Amino acid sequence: MDRSPTGGIVDVYAPQPFAFDFQKTVETLQLYRGEIKQPETLIDEINGNVGVGGIDMVVLGTCEFECVAFGSLHEQLLAAWDARDIAHKFKLVCIVHNVNDNAWQKFIAQWARRNAIRILSISEHVAAAFRRSFLISADSPDVSIRSAGYEYIPVDVHVPVLDTAVAVEHQPLRILANAVIQGSFFADRRDYLAIFAELNESLARDPKVWGYNPLSAEHVSYTVDTSLPDLPFRLFLIGSGYIEIPSELANIVVIRDKLSYPEFYKVMSDMDICVPAFSGENLYYDVQASSTFAMAVECSVPILVTERIKNSYTYVKDDRAVVTRPAAMREVEALQALRSRDASYFLQRMEIPPDSPTMHAAEAMMRLGWVRSGEESQTFKQDIWRANDRVVERLLRDL
């Protein structure tokens, strides 16, 4: 990469070619303009210059993967660190996603003992989970763990949001038509079955709200009601894996899998709202970071959330990025209310008392609606980038 004004250099070591045409995104956004080197050359280059101008920081993009998949990488890095004199040591920065993915965590103590490791999470709740874990380790009855200094390991958050070009600008009065669930098609991660069941239930009650005709002997799947002026509702599933779609929803649920990065950004940017679809006991709330939030923010798609979600993914705790539903209102109920601009069915069915906090939350959701302007989305992303810049400064200054 080109030298910065301070004279720093960034080198990238990664297998080539990048999967899913990510190189096109790298080039379009000018994320990196230098030679991409093979990972197996990293140790030789660390050892090739152990003085001034040598590598002084090693960032592992997914520590849960690199420290396990590349066999002896940890031992080689540690040996390289030990071989340097005290004035020319390097820092190891581990980017983490899941505190429960702990096969690599046995290596942390050796780096902590050397005061040579930093943890960089992609979401605040994962960072908090690592901090809690480190405090427990610091109090371990095992003296070899207790003496490593776990409580002093710096833990930061850097949200991976790129400056992608988003051309879609939704009109304030447009009806909500395209919702998306982004992620792997596994029912233990996202509550697809409940979403399908609730969508089927709502369609059976009032298909016209969603833009469809009732089922009939001739049609086992809902068909678009072309007499209506508004676009029909569609639920996009963007990700990978296999999932069976109920026959009734065959014309409503759209699967887009194996997309390249350019294709993904184009499809995602066309969405009106993103639905996390987490189940109540999902690990994404407490120990693991979901890519859904960063991807939606990148593409300027508002995310349908609850207070619980916002308390985990604190970086989206902002009305410019989210649509907040009361937890009593299921995601399909929220989509119906936002699409019809009417939450009365939910309030009546659930017998929500007037002037209750839940009623006020539903009213606030309806008042704000789902449309966010391009300016709102961009200024929100700029706030994230400024926070990321502060994190990078702490890394570079070892603060």
UniProtKB/TrEMBL annotation:
Record's protein name: Uncharacterized protein
Species the sequence originates in: Mycena pura
